[in-house]
Amino acid sequence: MPSSRSGGVAIAIGSMLDGVPESVVLGVSLLGGGGVSVPVFAAVFLSNFPEGLSSASGMKKAGRSRLYVFGLWTGIALLSGLPSLLGAAFLGGAPPRVLALVQAVAAGALLTMVADTMIPEAVEGEHGAAGLLVVLGLLLAFFLSHHQV
Q1: Quick one: pLDDT at residue 2?
Q2: What value, to the nearest 5°, has the Cα angle with vertex 40 and ends 105 and 7?
Q3: CA-to-CA distance for 103 and 88, rounded, in angstroms?
């Protein structure tokens, strides 16, 4: 179980690692002038919010102080903004293939984070409901990506 050994720090580090390519994608998407689409915003929020909750809960159970948890997540949030700025600055005129590669890396990092840390913790905590919740999450992501909200 990841959270008991590391006190939620593994999830926080994983969030940072999957947040870098995710932030690059967000930075590039802002270049079109239309802002971040609702599906992209929802996907980022829906993937990061449970990671943050799980990590903070694990750190609290491991005896970490609120200041430590808040400081760590504030640092991650600030450090995640830098790749967004760099993505916008350096990939603005990039060919579609390069942007697709960046998006694929972001998706792969997110899947790795989910498979390595979130699913094992969810199965331990929710038992039978974990599979149903994953399916509901995928259906929500599908709906958001195929319907303008």
Answers
A1: 46
A2: 65
A3: 14
pLDDT in tens, 38-80: 776 777 777 777 778 878 888 888 889 999 999 988 888 888 8
Sign of CA dihedral 105, 109, 115, 118: negative
Question: Is residue 88 within 8 Å of residue 31, measured between CB atoms?
Answer: yes
Angle at which helix 119-126 crosses helix 129-146, to 10 degrees, equals: 130
Measure the CA–CA gap between 32 and 95, rounded to whole angstroms.
14
Q: Is 29 within 8 Å of 100 (Cβ atoms)?
A: no
φ/ψ of residue 27, rounded to 5: -60, -45
Contact between 64 and 55 under an 8 Å Cβ cutoff? The reply is no
Indicate the burial class of 96 (C-beta count within 10 angstroms; 0-12, 13-18, 19 or more): exposed
pTM over 0.85: no
Residue that has been written with the tokens 């974990």 in this structure: 130
State the pLDDT at residue 34: 63
